[in-house]
Task: structure prediction
Amino acid sequence: MRRGHIRTHRILPILFLGCTRDQDSATPPDSQTAAATAVVVQQDSLAGAACFTADRSVLARTPGSVGAPASSINGWIRLDHFIGDSASAKLIDSDGFTLDASWRRIADSLVVAGFNDFVRIEMRLRVADSAARGTLNAHSDAALERDSAGKLREFSRSSRIAFRQAPCDSMPREAGAAEIDVVAHGTPRPGVRFDPAKVRRGSTVGELVVDSIVARQAAADTVFVGTARFRGAIELSGWTMRHPDPDAYRVVTCFEADSASAARLPRWAGDERRAWFCFSNRAAAAQALGPPSAGVPATIVVDQFTIHRGLSDEVNSVRLIRRVRQ
Result:
């Protein structure tokens, strides 16, 4: 993966299509009213889908950037089986860059959710009169950029977006392995880089030793995927974080190393994910760090640091030895 670029097969987007209720808060809709309000658009014959198009990218892409058209980009969303309560969805830009999603109905909102290690896209829209309007928020922890003060921060975009209904058979064709330019000049994540094609069991990477390595070249790309497990204890500082998967959000205890600690951890070549991981011994982690939470600072000692590197959602893991008491 080129720095700051994300390929189609590695991304699962997250969208929220919800009603902004600034003007409607005085009369909360019941479920029947909400359903009637939501289904104000005509449904296409294609899987009972409702499709909308905007005059800009639905993936926060900028015209002329690497992997994007030099001129304007139009974006589309398709919500399959729109009369139901949940189904699949599709996001596609006019050049064929496509992301899959799923949607479900909650009260007066439509929620389409997904995520991966590289990008998160959120849209909150109000659907009425064959149109949809709201905000688009895009965030990526795969690259850093400098703000107006020159400070490095994660890529983040927020803007207004407006859609109009359009026939689903007018949607552009999927192009396959297109690219999205998140940040033109991203800064690599800190860590002790190693080449998975060359490292062997017993090799030393930073403070740790390779216990096992399984790596293969992905058929659809030039990157290596697989698993690398390390032996040796290491002390890390950072803070607790929530697992981004809604099913694990309140169940799994996870941790993100700060930049100083991340710089000491082995890092698979080409891996630009944040330095976070979950614990293989969940009960011990919950006892030491508390239930799943976000932002609780701690210093911990771990071993069995394991990198899971793939083309979709992969989460690194460690075994907690103890929490260091100040």
Confidence is low (pLDDT under 50) at residues 1-40. Residues 5-181 form one domain. The helical segments are 31-38, 259-262, 282-289.
